[in-house]
Design a protein that fits this description.
Layout lengths: L7 H21 L7 H9 L2 H4 L4 H9 L3 H17 L1
Helix pairs in contact: 1-2
Length: 84
């Protein structure tokens, strides 16, 4: 079965809403400064290598993101920013 084709421009409002929703969830857990863009940056970091995922995988990646994975992403991003 082929993966469904989707267009980021057509779905950008919905994707942004999903990311904002996840950021709200993290804020409820005490991560006050998380924004929707931060969630998107974390989730989409692998898409440059892997290519555009199927829509169901994208939705799953956003909604299943754990706070621990997000914090690991921030730590690595900060390390790379300081060292390269």
């Amino acid at each position: 079965m082929e993966s469904e084709q989707w267009n980021y421009e057509q779905l950008s409002d919905e994707i942004e809403a999903m990311c904002r929703s996840k950021a709200e969830e993290f804020r409820l857990l005490g991560y006050e400064y998380v924004k929707g863009k931060d969630i998107w940056d974390c989730v989409s970091r692998n898409y440059a290598k892997e290519g555009r995922p199927a829509l169901h995988k994208l939705v799953n990646d956003i909604y299943s993101l754990k706070a621990n994975s997000y914090m690991n992403y921030l730590t690595i991003a900060a390390y790379r920013g300081l060292n390269g």
